[in-house]
Records
---
Amino acid sequence: MAQDNKKKPNQQKPKKVNPIVATFAELKQVSWPSFGKTMKGLGAVLVVTGLFLIVLFGIDRLLAFVVDDSLSIQNGSLLSASQIAAIIVGGILILGAIACVIAYNVIKKRNDKRK
């Protein structure tokens, strides 16, 4: 038991590595994407960002109409035509976003089964 705690004479101490040198050595091993792949990725990010912008803008407008204007009675009706149109458009945008999420999950599961 006492001998287990002693160092063996053949063991070497681990070498200290300069973190900057190690970082550059690691960066040389990275396979960087081509310019075309980078631009395709950028395009995908911009499209998804634009879609989320449209969905969130629609939800914002929908909630603004519901909170600000729908509780006041105008000309005997609870909602005006523009408010009803905004609610319909907002609802369509929300349903479209839900459909996109469902389609993404279905496609992902199909691709996972093929592998």
Note: The chain has one domain: 34-114.
---
Amino acid sequence: MQRVIFNQKGGVGKSSITCNLAAISAAQGYKTLVIDLDVQGNSSFYLGIDTYSPDNRSTLDGTIAGLLKQSTGRWLSQKKKSIDFVRETPFENLHVIPSSPGLDDIEKELENRYKIYKLRDALQELDEDFDRVYIDTPPNYNFYSKSALIGANHVVVPFDCDSFSKQALYNLIDNIVELQEDHNKELIIEGIVVNQYNSQARFPQELIKELREEEMPVLDSFLSSSVKMKESHHAQKPLVHFAPSHKLSRQFFELYCELEGLEVESESNSMKTKITA
């Protein structure tokens, strides 16, 4: 299973959702991989790799940029396997192919050489080694986000509750549906996850009601706004490890279960699942 977290708008929590769902997956015993396609490298940093450190920013080796660059045939004398670009994280079962500042430098070359399917090829190789793959994407509909949507079989759309985001959501869904039709009929839109939700405010409730009345696929699990998320970013620890008993950690677990078709059970403040589908 390869799941893309995608929205054309920035600041909606793509990296936070990617890493926290992946961390829960790994904690549940699945061998899990995060692929960071966003040049900002937020998911990479969250999982312990600073792509802008002097040691990392000067090389493509061991990054998603390096994996894609070698498809042009001019970077490596001997092509490496996709698994060779995977790095371990401090967390059991959780691995990452980090971002790189070099993504910007090679985008035009990859696009001009029609390498839009190379990520799909890599994902097919990695399918032998990983049970779950989560892909963080840039905040625009560019070569990298299209590559992810073409290569994966599931997509989740983060959404923050404001009118501008709602208008952009229609265009985003249209783009995904068009890409489904032209390039990846296997791609499933799992749903829209509401992030930074304020249950005390009236406007978010009205906005979600409008989306559902328009038959937009809004998921039942909402994610609240919390300073605990920023603290976990700083600590470079996903919430399942940083604050497992926190309300937001529980909400992420419920979202994970909804996406996986699992029933949530409570037992002594711990989190466990029971398969129902």
Note: The beta strands are 2-5, 32-36, 87-88, 94-97, 132-136, 154-160, 188-195, 262-267, 270-275.
